[in-house]
Design goal:
- The protein is of the alpha/beta class.
- It has 11 helices and 14 strands.
- The chain has 2 domains: 219 residues, Rossmann fold, CATH 3.40.50; 75 residues, Alpha-Beta Plaits (2-Layer Sandwich), CATH 3.30.70.100.
- β1 and β2 form a beta hairpin.
């Protein structure tokens, strides 16, 4: 479960959390490796409750867990000192400047004031907010506010960064800024990441591993590259020039075809081999430039996990 890479990033065992009659997490058990982790699930699946449980902000009704080797029941404050968290909700204080907000975030996790201020300048420069550090936070755009929350979450150089819906409602430019920063932190700065989002392209752009929740339960987890399995008898083909004769030969041989831009998706009949595609190309005098097994998309993996089995 921990992917053979040493101590897991976090582990939960039998976690149940109820709010009155509502069960937000139901006997949730999982172990997740370090790295860039995508947390997926529809609304009400338990993603935010799981994040708050990991941070020790709420106590589960039953079960146990650890984050970075620290017990969530007994070391919640130590966990929060080693974890950075940028919530989806508005958490900025009106009337303060960007530099004041980030420095205060550093002091909240125990940094001396002078160190927090110095580090605040560094992370504001890193997130592209250096020129607006002395402006009041309420004057920031939506994208700038998201980057400011990110700066506050990394001011203390945490081992783990948790981003809850960081690109929700953002324009394309702001979204790209957040994805670029998240990917850089995860892949170049050695920071583990939990990236909670309902936007699958954003998760795939940043993460190598996903956890899928549904109705408070674990539905699926694993490396994205392994979950996107090659489809049996399905191939992607691109020709030097489109050829109706090529398509007709494949159809006559029992293949199902679908045009997707420059690519042709080909599903061979049961028992057929890829040689059928090469034969059709030879008979139609078509030149194949690209031929490879077709793999499931992350969206298909996600939707399949949500289906009752």
């Amino acid at each position: 479960m921990s992917d053979g890479r040493g101590e897991p990033l976090f582990e939960l065992a039998g976690i149940t959390k109820q709010y009155g009659a509502l069960t937000a997490l139901s006997d949730l058990s999982l172990s997740v490796p370090s790295g860039a982790i995508g947390l997926l699930g529809p609304n009400g699946s338990g993603k935010t409750t799981m994040i708050r449980t990991l941070l020790g902000l709420i106590r589960p009704n039953s079960g146990s867990g650890q984050v970075l080797g620290l017990n969530i029941a007994h070391h919640a404050l130590d966990i929060r000192r080693q974890v950075g968290f940028a919530p989806e909700d508005e958490c900025l204080f009106p009337g303060v400047t960007g530099i004041e907000f980030v420095a205060y975030a550093g002091e909240l996790v125990g940094m001396p004031a002078t160190d927090a201020m110095q580090r605040a300048h560094e992370v504001l420069d890193y997130t592209g907010l250096g020129e607006v550090r002395y402006r009041k936070v309420e004057s920031y755009s939506a994208g700038m506010k998201q980057r400011l929350k990110l700066a506050g979450a990394i001011v203390h150089d945490p081992q783990l960064l948790i981003l809850d819906e960081p690109t929700n409602g953002m324009d394309p430019a702001g979204r790209e800024d957040i994805l670029r920063l998240a990917a850089d932190l995860a892949h170049n700065k050695g920071m583990s990441l939990i990236f909670s989002s309902h936007l699958l392209p954003d998760v795939e752009a940043v993460c190598h591993y996903i956890v899928v929740l549904g109705n408070g339960r674990l539905l699926l987890q694993g490396p994205i590259s392994e979950l996107k399995q090659a489809r049996a008898n399905c191939y992607e083909v691109r020709l030097k020039q489109p050829s109706e004769a090529f398509n007709q030969r494949l159809t006559a041989a029992g293949c199902a075809l679908a045009v997707r831009g420059e690519l042709l998706a080909v599903k061979l009949p049961e028992g057929a081999a890829m040689a059928m595609v090469w034969q059709a190309a030879a008979e139609s005098q078509s030149q194949i430039r690209h031929l490879r097994p077709q793999r499931s998309t992350l969206e298909e993996v996600f939707l399949n996990a949500l289906e009752p089995h």
